[in-house]
Amino acid sequence: MDLEQGNNCDPDGDLPKTVNWPALVVLIIGTFMAVLDGSIVTVALPKMMAVFGVSAASIEWILTAYMLTMGIIMPLSGFLGDNFGYKRCFFAAMALFTCGSALCAVAWNFDSLIIARVVQALGGGLIMPLSMAMLYKICPRERIGTVMGIWGISAMAAPAIGPMLGGYLVLNADWRVIFTINLPIGIIDLLLITRLLGETGLIRGEKLDVRGIVLSTVGFFTLLLALDQSGSKGWADPRIMILLFIAVVSLILFVINELSVSDPILELRLYAIPVFAITSLINWVLQSGLNGAIFLEPILIQNVLGQTALTSGLITFPAAIATGMMMPISGWIYDRYGVRRIAIVGVAITAWTTYMMHTFNALTAFPVMAIWMTIRGVGLGLGMMPLMTAGMNAVPKTLVGRASATSEVSNQIFSSLGIAVLATIMQNREAFHYAQLARSIDVSSAAFYQMQSILRSMAVRLGMGAGAGQGLGISVIYRQVAMMSAVQAIDDCFIVAAAACAIGLVVCFFLREKMPSASQEPSPDSEGKPPVFA
Predict the structure, then answer these.
(1) For the chain, what is the total number of helices (H) and then of strands (E)?
(2) Is residue 64 a contact partner of residue 233, using CB atoms and an 8 Å limit?
(3) Residue-wise over 417-442: b if at least 16 C-beta within 10 A, else e?
(4) pLDDT tens-digit readout, 339-391
(5) Measured between alpha carbons, how far is 130 from 324 in angstroms, rounded to an integer?
(6) Contact criterion met (CB below 8 Å) for 231 and 420
(7) What are phi and psi of 7, to 5 degrees?
(8) How far is CA 411 from CA 9, 209, 286, 453, in A?
(9) Is residue 49 helix, strand or coil?
(10) 0.70 cut: is pTM over it?
(11) What are phi and psi of 527, to 5 degrees?
């Protein structure tokens, strides 16, 4: 393949000596919008369900369609960026995302909203891997930790800000506003892209991996759909088993194909680079545990404890602020001292605080919940981005686009896997705790009789009759049993999530203090392929 120089690249492929801060701002805006949209829509689902008159099972497709489309389009980001230029592709992705947002805002029925979400996801799925790849192409490697830390604010803070902002807009405006707010920001960012971003160098002569695209589309679609639907249908459901079978077969063939063709759509041979492989392993484990825990937090606060989405967002918002504040600091530390110590400290804090969240119950004060989540946010800010930076920093410059695509796709899969596994554990443990608590109820105890007496007296005074009071007493008890069993099940899931983080912590000890950069790793061959390690 031939390298074609862009206006950001010199003939030798050297990186700039200074950080292009205006370009960084442009990339942050785009990334923040794409990530925010994944969480802001969630709180508007009940309103949309009422407006369009669809069931709860149907309304979930607003999220599922977005997630599946992102999983399909992400693997193409590296090929598109290398062959057409990362600036052009980023502009097209932002334009698609903005147009999709406009279509969502004017959707006239449920089907049109689903189609609009697919258009939105076609852009949103490309924005994050393209922006990460551009950072590595336009910023000096010696400053990449600080740059990634600042850029990571958008990726890590947006999921926590989304529910709070979405809850406020739905309560005080209209559900369509969660899409229309993207329009002015998207248009401004498109203008800034044309003015502030320079084009990257092109890689000519790559062949389009058609088989890889087909196999990845089928494999990732069926896998993500099975993981998404497993919580409601169960892993033993025939449809889930068929989807998983198709996914496994397709992805096995996909791996074989990617390792045998000269220009794969996902460069799996990057895992031959030890630094990239070990940091990816840590991130996979952390993504599985952390995103599962993030999935459980609103369920505990809203569904079990009966709080609004806005209250849930206010509880989790300080954690987002803490994460955002720590990311540039962790990037600065990484640039000067390496990844090992900062990763160990960050992951240890994350594992410890996730474990402590298993003490949450109906009597836990919301400020206490917020404090623990904020401390965990500090750990996330310290640990996650340096690990990702160290892995990407070991990749040759010509392959950062492929590395970004590979990293984002794998993170998407393991995030979905973590959510699906913890959802299954929660359901099983909830049934277990309900049975245990129900057996512990003693209807012959003095306390039970006293409560029944009080409720019968209240029912008589209200004109309901003594029999109604007795039924009310039993209803109150079993409602409390259901709530307690749900809380205990979620607490069990926090322990499992903490265990996943602990596994990541153990792997962190295998990192070297100063991880080698791409220049220190074995060089790629003449065609830009990853090195082969004996």
Answers:
(1) 19, 2
(2) no
(3) bbbbbbbebbeebbeebbeebeeeee
(4) 888 899 999 999 999 999 999 888 888 899 989 989 998 998 888 888 888 88
(5) 21
(6) yes
(7) -80, 5
(8) 29, 22, 9, 56
(9) helix
(10) yes
(11) -100, 15
